[in-house]
Amino acid sequence: MTARYPILITIVFFLLTIHSVNVKAQDSKVGTWGIATVVLPGDSTHKWGGYTEFQTRTNNVFSQFQYYEVKAGVSYDIDKNFTALLGTGRYTTFDYMDVGKGPTITETRFWEQITSNQFLYRLKLEHRYRVEQRWVNGDYRNRFRYRLNVFVPLNNTKIVAKTWFVSVFDEVFLNNKVPNFERNRISAALGYQFDKSWILQAGWINQYNYSTAAKSDKDNIMLILMYRIQRKNAVQREHVPTTSD
Fold it and tell me: Which pLDDT score is estimated for 243?
């Protein structure tokens, strides 16, 4: 493994925070999401796996830091196309106009998840079903999520080393209180898998929030860096470079 790949993660998060202090505060229509993920995938020999992920968001493009999250999960491969996962995370939101006064929203979350994959020659489909238990500033909430993620490799039939690919997804967020619809995310990104472990994606994500009090949506530049841990003597099989967010 060459030294240049680990440097990418430093560059991504340096760009996200370097201008945060000196930019005039404003409610920007375009922000930035940076996501770094380490994944230990399962395979035909090893059923258990897991991941950890760090994410940061800014109100403006590469400036005005306002949010970060840290999460992790343990997964179990039911078979080569179905994976169950238990996860937990900590989510913290700040006022980007005065980060120094501390968080405005803190959330602890647990979730149960099933993911199914379909590999249709070049077309790769991921269906993700998630049930969440959330404590937002101490208040308990439930949420239900479904995401359809589509991957298309461009210069290979599989997403392997030295492969360019396109990733597109849409995710719906529901809860058990009226109005049941809470949020929708839609995203499109271009990705490149350098080798068996390192994957980089860059693209766009829109998040639309809905409540009886207000509606809002925001576009964001999205940067994702993923490191996939390789087990010794693992039986290799096809994986999709999905974000765990």
Answer: 85
CA distances from 43 to 84, 85, 151, 235, 244 (A): 13, 15, 20, 6, 18
Q: What would the pLDDT profile of 149-190 be if each residue is shown by its tens digit?
A: 999 999 999 999 999 999 999 999 999 988 899 999 999 999
**How many whole angstroms separate alpha carbon 111 and alpha carbon 87?**
5
Q: What is the pTM of this model?
A: 0.88
User: Do 232 and 158 touch, CB atoms closer than 8 A?
Assistant: no
Measured in whole angstroms, the distance separating CA 109 from the mean position of its chain's CA atoms is 15
Tokens read off for 191: 């990705």
CA dist 158 and 151 (Å) reads 10
213 by Cβ neighbours in 10 Å (0-12 / 13-18 / 19+) ranks as exposed
Q: Cα 161 to chain center, whole Å?
A: 21
**234 has a pLDDT exceeding 50:** yes
What lies within 8 Å, CB to CB, of 203 at 6+ separation is 167, 187, 188, 189, 190, 221, 222
- 3 state SS of 106: strand
Pairing, β 30-40 against β 215-228: parallel
Model confidence pLDDT, tens digit, residues 181-194: 999 999 999 999 99
Least confident of 8-17, 48-57, 80-89, 119-128: 8-17
Of 133, 149, 48, the C-alpha closest to 88 is 133
For residues 240 and 124, the answer to whether their CB atoms sit within 8 Å is yes
CA 213/CA 211 separation, integer angstroms: 5
What count of Cα atoms within 13 Å lies in the side-chain half-sphere of residue 138? 1
Tell me which residue of 29, 40, 8 sits closest to 194, measured CA to CA: 8
